[in-house]
Write a structure and sequence with these properties.
Elements (H helix, E strand, L loop, with lengths): L2 E6 L2 E6 L4 H8 L22 E4 L6 E2 L10 E3 L3 H15 L9 H5 L6 H9 L3 H9 L5 H7 L3 H5 L11 H13 L16 E5 L3 H12 L3 E6 L7 H4 L8 H12 L4 E4 L9 H6 L2 E6 L5 E2 L12 E3 H9 L9 E5 L3 H12 L4 E5 L11 H10 L2 E3 L2 E7 L6 E12 L5 E5 L5 E4 L2 E4 L3 E2 L32 E3 L2 H4 L4 H20 L41 H4 L12 H8 L14 H9 L22 E3 L9 H9 L6 E3 L6 E3 L16 H5 L5 E3 L13 E6 L8 E7 L2 E5 L14 H5 L14 E4 L2 E4 L2 H19 L4 E6 L4 H14 L5 E4 L7 H6 L16 E5 L3 H4 L1 H12 L3 E6 L11 E4 L4 H15 L9 E2 L1 H9 L12 H13 L3 E6 L5 H13 L9 E5 L5 H6 L6 E2 L3 E2 L3 H11 L11 H10 L4 E5 L13 E6 L11 E4 L8 E4 L5 E4 ...
Parallel strand pairs: 1-5, 6-7, 6-9, 7-8, 9-21, 11-19, 12-13, 12-19, 13-14, 31-32, 31-41, 33-34, 33-37, 34-35, 36-46, 37-38, 41-42, 42-43
Antiparallel strand pairs: 1-2, 3-4, 3-5, 10-20, 15-16, 16-17, 16-18, 22-25, 23-24, 26-27, 27-28, 29-30, 29-43, 39-40, 44-45
Helix pairs in contact: 2-20, 4-5, 4-8, 4-19, 5-8, 6-8, 8-19, 9-17, 13-14, 14-15, 25-36, 29-32
Length: 1232
């Protein structure tokens, strides 16, 4: 390929001829953002995010549409380019109306994924919900009782009825786990040998220790008080937070390996240098604000004037406190409310709370205010104290009435005195709860810099103090805050310390870049009218009269059904594509905010009529990718750009449903969407957080194309398909089967354990018991009547390793060559005799290199949609596409020529072409062939076949001439429909043209199941040993006998049709079947059958013993596509999944006397010794191609096998039903 040199960002690089700047940059790993670019389509240049500077060009150019030229100088990232890209993104964001993350998540200081844990609770997955919560909060039971739940304030459910009671649900989940006796524990990284010290055992310090131990550190917490907990223990009354709840969650943290030393006061019992000498690599100061702010009033120092913190601490310790009959509390925060309610419990008959603003401005939790009122606390709003009276002990408080003036810095209206409104309030004690600060008590913090506000001076970004190894967090850094803020700060501190100690860059932000629709107060209620109104759950509360004088917990935990019902009220805000959205990623990288061009946005709302595709036009940036992929790549055109100007939308014609416009449900529109405007339906309902799923890359279990699927799984099963296209232009496009049927494993009747049939009824059995029964039954039956009475059936959905073991068991253990299975073996072996192997001679890459492609006898769109997409790409790139079929196909629009023709006319046509080619000058005929003279002689003796009269001869001659003139002809057939005679003609034509083995030319034999090719390659065929060596070949048998240590049968065995027939007439005495082979539909007369099945057997199942067979991503091993691309996949760790099939079959083989299969690697090594296909890389030809005589092949292929191939197995039935339901509309989104 011709190359050119150019300069990219100051470096001389080599570009390929015809390559664009963007293609070059991506190949070299240079980042150039692009939103409208899809490598499978021609450039579009609509987003202008990929702009670059080219020296000598005016302005900027789009990298996606600008081809590289010799000596070109390109600058991909300059200051002006960054500004222009930011502007382009701002313009796109100006009409991108959505939420990256749910507003509740953004409101939560800890950034808990609230939407996801509510979704889990709604599905009854409580332990999974807890894992989501504990990712960001190690104190969920505590916070379930005392959190101010700002998340509920931000809840969009306000626009429907009442906000979701998020805290109530969290409390239920946490309490359930705490009461289980086996609370969940996070995974811990390997110990790194580094110790860290945490000064302060409050919520911030304990949270920091929780995350530090997960990161591999050995944290020790130093706490001044007798017990850890900080203000949670000594500042929150027991009636709100019982001590045993706090103790339990602290114990869970300590059980992870965190050490705790109580009664250790910094500055008294130890200093920073002491900790350094003990080997601590870093120190975190997380002390709380234990001193009350002074009111600075006359008489404040009199007996009877308390601080709120001191009062709550003494009450928590159980010390006796007397406030007298009349107690007055000054303040409006949670501490003031706690003090007021505690005063009641300490015996005060009258408790009054004085607050200088109105009730609306009170920062305390409204629920706490309401409960205090119910208990008898009186409130004096707009009242401020002036001083205290009394001769010795305080006896009264002088007050003044206030009125609200202009707002202050906090946004609340500033209270101003009302002249002449002074009055005195008689009392026995006063509790001041107007604020808190750090209590240094003359200690200088070991030299750390302290601000004028009494907090530690530290970096906002790194949390480092004036000492490099000391970090600060919590109240001593930010001032007094809530428990959840302290918890969030603790996690951030742990990450900061990790970054400081390890030197690694760590993202400490709880909330990364986010686009939002806005606060619910600014949104239109009409947009939410589609949601039904549902009552909000209420927290059970003790009656006011019964609770006001007791420390029994006031609020109770709800029941499971209440929590689940409340979780279902969640509107599931946020975008499920948040982790893969390119708009979000680029906006964050380039500093776009979406606020520069603020204004009206289109708001049509999400459209969910399709069971697998959700369209959200509000998020659409009109890049055009989905429209072009649907039309140009998929050949459907189900969607288009509807409307003009600002109101333009991507939609089906006339705004009809996708099903009404022939949408194929391939999901390619989702795969290409960069903005989350098109999203995939998720298994089980809604998105689960990616952090607790494993991304497993597997081979699609449907057709034999071998498309790779990235599936997110948890231990519970399949969560979602990560449906994004591959980067390579030659990558296949996942079709409707893979997209709509990725949740294949979600079948209610999956077989999970072995079963034995006794007296016509199935019962569960252990593996050992089932193996013994299977071994004795198979061996006894095969021995009694010989190997010719035994047979083995496999499935085209199994891995190469399973296929190999099945044929090995059949030949070496049961002494039979009767081998086959649904979709494997028994069909056209023409290519094995012509080219040395029953496989394609061309690869998928050749589709884009060929100058003429001929498809014969099938519709690529129906069974091989990914191939159809590549055919359109090839035609768009200039290849001639000829489509021969008896009816219209899905690729006809892309074809250069179409011919309505069927067998036997196809056979007659190709035979006439063969005769015409043989009649040409011999110099034009390929030389690397054998059997040319025999073919000439046979053809000369044959009368030409007559074509049907309606086929026009002159047109056929033109098609023939185009095929003969092609330099790189490529023929594609379907193994399930092509006849031996047709295939022989085509093989001869290609061999004579020298097209076999030439890039862009040859023959592709498509196969309808994911590993049909692998089954044939590995010898699951009665006539061929692994590697396409005939069973009658003594040398081939001898090599396997030496490898396996067993003698092998030397007679050609039956393939699938013969095995089925033999079973029906009673000629078989033993049968091993693995995978769905439709055993129940055959009348097996007297045969002992052992089977591996995917679903539970019914009473009609003819087997005596069944084993659970692995399916799809449950299985380990390799799968071979129709172009012999061997792809490995690793089984996902799924709950209750059966063992991989190679393990189960290996155990069965060992029980039957064959050597033990120790590992997958050892098995693959054995396979490479057994077959040259794995030993030499799978060369296609072992010399010259052998020409076949088509008329000798005409009667070889039995029609019974074609019928058997057409009968779908479990996998085929599943996807056929699924797609029929989608098309008919019978399957709704809710029904998935």
């Amino acid at each position: 390929m011709k190359t050119i040199n150019l300069n990219l960002d100051g470096k001389t690089v080599e570009a390929r001829e015809g390559e664009t700047i963007l293609q070059l940059a991506r190949r070299l790993g240079v980042e150039i953002p692009a939103l409208c670019y899809d490598p499978r389509l021609p450039p579009y240049a609509s987003c202008f995010v990929c702009i670059v500077e080219v020296e000598g060009r005016r302005g900027v150019v789009p990298a996606c549409a600008t081809k590289c030229e010799p000596n070109m100088v390109v600058r991909a990232r300059t200051e002006s380019i960054v500004k222009l890209r930011r502007m382009a993104l701002e313009l796109l964001l100006s009409n991108h109306h959505g939420d990256c993350v749910a507003p509740c998540n953004m409101a939560c200081p800890a950034g808990i994924d609230i939407r996801s844990y509510l979704a889990e609770v709604a599905k009854g997955k409580y332990h999974r919900a807890l894992r989501v919560i504990k990712e960001r909060n190690p104190f969920p039971s505590v916070c379930g009782r005392i959190c101010p739940h700002r998340c509920e304030d931000a809840c969009r459910r306000h626009l429907v009825d009442d906000p979701v009671a998020i805290n109530l649900v969290k409390r239920y989940v946490a309490d359930l786990d705490r009461a289980s006796g086996k609370p969940w524990k996070p995974e811990l990284a390997a110990r790194n040998g580094k110790k860290v010290a945490v000064i302060g055992g409050g919520p911030g310090g304990m949270s920091a220790a929780y995350y530090l131990v997960q990161l591999g550190y050995e944290p020790t917490v130093f706490e001044a008080m007798p017990k850890a907990g900080g203000m949670l223990r000594y500042g929150v009354p027991d009636y709100r937070l019982p001590q045993d709840v706090l103790d339990a969650e602290i114990r869970q943290i300590l059980d992870l390996g965190v050490k705790l030393e109580c009664g250790k006061t910094w500055g008294k019992d130890f200093h920073l240098d002491d900790l350094r000498q003990r080997g601590f690599s870093a120190i975190l100061v997380a002390i709380g604000a234990w001193a009350s702010s002074a009111m600075d009033m006359e008489g404040e120092d009199r007996p009877g004037v308390w601080s709120g913190i001191a009062l709550l601490e003494k009450a928590a310790k159980g010390e006796k406190v007397s406030l007298g009959d009349r107690a007055v509390i000054v303040g409006g925060g949670n501490t003031a409310i706690d003090a007021a309610r505690t005063a009641l419990r300490l015996g005060s008959q009258s408790v009054t709370l004085v607050y200088r603003r109105s009730r609306k401005e009170m920062p305390a939790n409204p629920e706490e205010i309401h409960e205090a009122e119910e208990e008898g606390v009186q409130f004096h709003f707009l009242t401020a104290p002036l001083g205290f009276t009394g001769a010795d002990k305080v006896a009264g408080m002088r007050c003044i009435k206030m009125q609200l003036g202009e707002p202050d810095k906090s946004g609340r209206r500033r209270p101003v005195p009302v002249p002449g409104s002074e009055f005195e309030m008689p009392l026995d004690s006063v509790v001041a709860a107007i604020g808190q600060k750090v209590r240094w008590g003359g200690f200088n913090g070991d030299g750390l810099k302290i601000t004028k506000w009494g907090t530690l001076e530290a970096s906002e970004k790194t949390l480092r103090t004036s000492a490099q190894d000391v970090f600060a967090v919590g109240d001593c850094f930010t001032g007094p805050a809530t428990a959840i803020e302290a918890i969030a700060a603790g996690r951030r501190a742990a990450l900061a310390m990790h970054a400081g100690v390890s030197g690694k860059a760590v993202d400490m932000e709880a909330h990364p870049f986010n686009v939002t629709k806005g606060k619910w107060q600014d949104l239109d209620r009409k947009d939410y009218e589609r949601h039904p109104k549902l009552p909000r759950a209420a927290t059970p509360v003790l009656p006011a009269a019964a609770r006001a004088r007791t420390y029994e917990e006031v609020q109770k935990t709800v029941a499971a059904e209440t929590a689940a019902a409340e979780a279902k009220r969640c509107l599931l805000c946020g975008c499920q594509e948040v982790s893969s959205c390119l708009v979000r990623r680029y906006s964050g990288e380039y500093g776009a905010t979406g606020e520069q061009f603020a204004g009206e946005k289109t708001k049509p709302g999400p459209i969910v009529e399709h069971p697998f595709i959700v369209r959200d036009p509000e998020k659409c940036i009109l890049c055009g990718r989905c429209v072009r992929v649907c039309s140009e790549l998929q050949g459907v055109g189900a969607i288009g750009l509807v409307g003009r100007g600002f109101v333009t939308q991507v939609a089906p014609a006339f705004h009809s449903s996708l099903q009404a416009v022939n949408c194929k449900s391939c999901g390619q529109c989702i795969a290409t969407c960069p903005a989350g405007a098109l999203q995939a339906r998720q298994s089980g309902g809604e998105r689960n957080p990616a952090w607790r799923t494993e991304e497993v890359e597997v081979v699609c279990s449907y057709c034999g194309t071998g498309c790779r699927l990235k599936v997110a799984v948890s231990e519970e099963g399949v969560e979602r398909l990560q449906h994004k296209m591959g980067a390579g232009e030659g990558e296949m496009s996942v079709c409707a089967k893979g997209f709509a049927g990725f949740d294949l494993l979600v079948q209610p009747d999956r077989l999970r354990e072995p079963m034995l049939k006794e007296k016509g009824r199935w019962r569960p059995a252990s593996w050992d018991e089932a193996l013994k029964a299977a071994t004795e039954g198979l061996a006894k039956a095969a021995k009694a009547k010989g190997g010719k009475s035994a047979a083995v059936l496999g499935s085209a959905r199994l891995t190469n390793e399973a296929h190999y073991l099945l044929q090995k068991i059949g030949r070496a253990a049961l002494g039979t060559n009767h081998l086959g299975g649904k979709g494997v073996g028994g069909e056209c072996d023409v290519l094995a005799r012509a080219f040395g192997g029953n496989f394609s001679t061309a690869r998928r890459e050749d589709l884009l290199l060929s100058d003429l492609i001929l498809t014969v006898g099938f519709d690529p769109e129906t069974e091989f949609a990914a191939v159809a997409s590549m055919l359109r790409s090839a035609a768009r790139s200039g290849a001639k596409l000829h489509v021969y079929h008896h009816r219209a196909t899905g690729v006809d629009k892309a074809a250069t020529s179409t011919l309505r023709i069927a067998y036997p006319d196809t056979y007659a046509l190709f035979e006439s072409w063969l005769a015409d080619l043989l009649a040409q000058d011999s110099s034009r005929i390929g030389k690397d062939v054998s059997g040319l003279s025999e073919l000439r002689a046979a053809m000369s003796r044959c009368e030409p076949r007559q074509l049907s009269g309606w086929l026009r001869r002159h047109r056929l001659d033109r098609l023939r001439d185009e095929f003969f003139a092609a330099a790189r002809p490529l023929v594609i057939v379907d193994a399930a429909s092509v006849r031996d005679s047709e295939l022989a003609c085509l093989a001869d034509l290609l061999a004579l043209k020298g097209a076999v083995g030439r890039p862009g030319a040859g023959l592709i034999l498509l196969r309808g199941a994911c590993n049909s090719q692998g089954a044939i390659d590995n010898g699951l065929d009665g006539r061929w040993l692994p590697g396409y060596r005939p069973v009658s070949d003594p040398a081939a048998r001898k090599s396997l006998e030496d490898l396996w240590g067993r003698g092998l049968p030397d007679w050609p065995g039956l393939t699938t049709p013969g095995i089925i027939q033999a079973g029906e007439v009673g000629s078989l005495s033993a049968l091993l079947s693995w995978g769905d082979n439709g055993l129940s539909s055959v009348a097996w007369k007297g045969a002992f059958i052992a089977a591996g099945e995917w679903i539970k057997p019914g009473p009609e199942h003819p087997a005596s013993v069944v084993f659970p067979a692995a399916l799809f991503l449950e299985d380990d091993g390799g799968l071979t596509s129709w172009d012999r691309r061997v792809q490995q996949q690793k089984a996902a760790a799924l709950k209750d999944a059966p063992p991989p099939n190679w393990q189960s079959l290996g155990r069965l083989a060992e029980a039957l006397g064959l050597p033990k299969t120790s590992s997958l690697e050892a098995l693959r090594g054995e396979m490479s010794r057994a077959s040259q296909l794995y030993r030499d890389g799978g060369a296609l030809l072992g010399g010259k191609a052998r020409l076949l005589v088509p008329r000798e092949e005409e009667a070889r292929q039995p029609m019974e096998f074609l019928k058997y191939l057409s009968e779908a197995d479990l996998v085929g039935r599943f996807i056929r039903k699924r797609l029929e339901e989608v098309k008919s509309g019978a399957l709704t989104r809710a029904g998935c």
